Amino acid sequence: MKINTTAQSKDNFRGTPPVLSTRALNRALLARQMLLTRVNLPVLDAIERLVGIQAQDPNAPYFGLWTRLEEFRPDDLSNLIQNKKVMRLALMRSTIHLVSSKDGMSLRPLIQSVQETVLKNSFGKHLNGLDTQAVAEAGRALVETKPLTFSELGKLLGKQWPNVESAALAAVVRTLVPLVQMPPRGIWGKSGQAIHTSAEAWIGRLPFSKLTTEDIILRYLSAFGPATIQDIQVWSGLTRLKEKIRQLLPQLIIFHNDQGNELLDIPSAPRPDQNVPSPPRFLGGFDNILLSYADRKRIIDESYRNIVFTKNGIIRPTILIDGFVSGLWKVQKEKGTVKLIIELFNKLPDEEHNALTEEGTRLLDFIAGQESSREILFV
């Protein structure tokens, strides 16, 4: 999508925008995602810098933070969840994200239209003639009285709306009420069903910053840019952002990718040299960098996409080699032994293989706790 760049400020590039190679875009992404070098940053600040962490897999945010932050420990995040400083709720693309409580309450109203579109697409035929506001109010009362699973919520609502599918009733509440997944869901080393209450009941009706769509765009670019309008829309689920972008142009600079598409960016954001070394990294499942672009080749080759993105909607844990997705990993625990199983897409030179093994050993140290033995298997 082309935009009129004549409104750019005098500090922006003049004439034909510079071209950024795929590798240059990769290094910009890694720098902003704290993947070139682990950073010393408070966990809450890191979560806000990333504009939240994709969190369908309850453990994935722990791996995402471990691979980005110095000296990260599971309790660093678990304590934030239990102390209500962060929350798990449906946000961008109507998928579960782990965000600061402040961001959760600020971002949710801005992406409400996304939630409603997903509801209509999934349950539209069940909504005809249904008073969705009444369902939402009844659902809010139920989850604020006692936290519930979606199944429990749907069955209880079905007593009042017996002719409507229970899953549709629960989805209406999820759409119109910001529902938080409560602990022990999301706590390291613990398990449990996803039970929900309202965000207001969980953290109280505290004042929070009112963000604008322009604020979201700028924060996305800080964490993921340079990027196209389509990229921003894929990440957020929002549409028709062209006019919002036009209003922001005086604050932005324009690049092109090697296909000639316009890329938007913040002038002060990092754009390292494309040849800056990138160490091996283990990413958790559903990592945001795999889900936040219309064109993902800056991080994953299209030939590997069907290996990482499964047919049932799972995004598998991946390995970055030289900054790009180059393999998969998983952990198995058997009789006191923790095994890290690595599946590489291609054979590595000895130096990269050794560096990956060292990083894998650190990952096992993070996962294993007091387990008696550890093992790395290449398959």
Strand order in space, largest sheet: 8-9-10-11-12
Query: Helices and strands, in N-to-C order?
Result: HHEHHEEHHHHHEEHHHHEEEHEEEHE
Largest sheet: 5 strands, mixed
Please state the average pLDDT score.
94
Any low-confidence stretches, pLDDT <50, length ≥5? 4-11
Net shape? globular
Tally the beta strands. 12
How far is the first residue's CA from the last residue's CA? 43 Å
So what's the oligomer here?
single chain
**Class of secondary structure makeup:** alpha+beta
Question: Radius of gyration, Cα only, in angstroms?
Answer: 22 Å
How much strand content do the residues show? 15-25%
- How many helices? The count is 15
Helical coverage, percent range: 25-40%
Task: Name its key features.
379 residues; alpha+beta; five-stranded mixed β-sheet; three-stranded antiparallel β-sheet; 15 helices
Protein described:
- Helix 6 runs antiparallel to helix 9, helix 7 packs across helix 9 and helix 8 crosses helix 9.
- Strand 2 and strand 3 form a beta hairpin.
- The strands form four sheets. The chain has a five-stranded mixed beta sheet with strand order 8-9-10-11-12. Strands 1-3-2 form a three-stranded antiparallel beta sheet.
- It is built from 15 helices and twelve strands.
- It starts with 21 loop residues before the first helix and ends with a strand.
- It has 379 residues and is α+β, with helices and mostly antiparallel strands.
- The protein has a domain of 79 residues.
Give me a quick take on this structure.
By secondary structure, this protein is an alpha+beta fold. It contains 15 helices and twelve strands.
